[in-house]
Amino acid sequence: MSALNDLRAHLTAMRTLVKGVTRGLAELSPRDDPLELFNQWYADAEKSGLLLPESMALATATSDGVPSVRMVLLKRVDARGFRFFTNFGSRKALELDANPRGALCFYWSVLERQVRVEGSVARLSTQESDAYFRSRQRGSQIGAWASRQSRSIADRQALEARVREMEQRFADGPVPLPEHWGGYILKPTRFEFWQGRSNRLHDRFAYTLSPGGQWIVSRLQP
Predict the structure, then answer these.
(1) What is the per-residue pLDDT across 44-70, written as a single tens digit (0 to 9) for each?
(2) Among 48, 67, 113, 160, whose CB has the most other CB atoms within 10 angstroms?
(3) CATH superfamily placement of domain 36-46+53-220
(4) DSSP character at residue 151
């Protein structure tokens, strides 16, 4: 019980510390680059010691607007957009192929920060997917071949049997990129930055991409 109390006290101290040093967001201007601000916040999340700061909620929808959401991992972000990888037979991939728009949400609790990103989504080239696939651990490569993601399976033993089958299949060499696996890139058209403040009077700024390619920034009420 004392260990639990110590943990609670530690977490309370961390929240108090963060709130004490948080001064909110300065007023932003259209000249500011939302991607640059995202990169700054992401670096802060990495430095904070949070587990898997690259975790992000990915929301998709069917062609007739039925939504779904799940956690995925950000693998790269640059001026082109946000990249993640999956099985092309998964629910999210099927929805993105039918309705190529998505939304991301990053939440870094200890920093009381959230970033939402919306935009169009497209598949990455086979070359880019292959380059990332080759960087994965061999076990993860085997898993990509073994799992028919989002489909029903009888039990865990059936999945493990599939893994053994793939291990035997590729025992004598490297594991190639499966045709059913690869990456997507979300190209942002909207960012929203949320910084927690006292009394629930949070700072919120939205960046919306204009038809002319310029970012329009506005402060939102909390």
Answers:
(1) 999 999 999 999 999 999 999 999 999
(2) 113
(3) Electron Transport, Fmn-binding Protein; Chain A (2.30.110.10)
(4) S
